[in-house]
Design goal:
globular, Arc Repressor Mutant, subunit A, 3-stranded antiparallel beta sheet, transcription, 3 domains, about 35% helix, D-Maltodextrin-Binding Protein, domain 2, LysR_subst-bd, alpha/beta, LysR family transcriptional regulator
Amino acid sequence: MSLANLDLNLLVFLRELLRERNVTRAAQRVGVTQSAASAALSRLRRHFGDELLVRSRGGYLLSPLAVQLADQVEPVCASVERLFATSPDFCPEESDREFTLLVPDYVLAAFGERFSRELHAAAPRARLHVQVVKQALPGDVLDALRVLDGIVSAPSAALRGAGIRSLELFRDRWVCVVDADNPVLDGAGSHLALADLQRLPWVVPHHPDGGYPATFPLAPLIARLDERPRVAVRVDSYQATPYFVAGTDRVAVMQRRLAALFADRPDLRVLECPGDPPLIVESLWWHERHDEDDAHRWFRGIAARAARDPGAGLRAARPAHPTHESRPAASKRRSS
């Protein structure tokens, strides 16, 4: 269908309609009258041959087609906004461009605050849309990068295709987090052994069903164990991991930058990880079409500076809490 035959004003209304699931609120967001919004909904229904909004007891629900459209309309609108925001000379101090970034929640903890501060200081009017990776990257990474300014991720086969560029942001390493009163500390001091990892129940973020595929970040460490560890808690967030370690005999293997945020808690201990697990390398990935975009080059520079700055959450994971022997006696807490 030719764009010349489409009323692109409907695109803006469609986005707000799918966001709000309410004609009146969508009209307010777009800045049109109720009657104009109702007319726009009628045109969209005729165009797609679908109700889009389906009445229910609590209001309106999106039809199956509308759910599909909701996933598509956001990146389309973002791309159109970026297109019309383009100017011959990029001026950070005056730009109100929106940059869209897809990141794991661990990366947000590692450098998100510093990145936000750097971006705001240099471009106070610029906008940022941060999307958090749920479990895995989009199926078609190249297609996703056409509408994103970047993805922060460890290298993978999906990110090494033609047309994808990258810039290393920072490196990290794996550490272990246990409760300060975990009995394993009676003989471990500041280090754990592989046998300890094999014996203790684990808290694992984003653990896939059915095992540990080769793409699992800790697969090389798992391969060194005689038996696969028992997963006691699966949680869909890296940052939530320590909350399921405290007060139990569980262990979590997590990134040092993230663990450093919890190193001051007296009820947790951060220990070196045995087994020589692989180094963590986080990079910014983008589509090659951004290579000559002055605004995007500036954006990449901000990300690199924030990630490598000493203030970006680089506190060492400390094993400096008192040892178990020097702490007051406490009951041994076990996970159920």
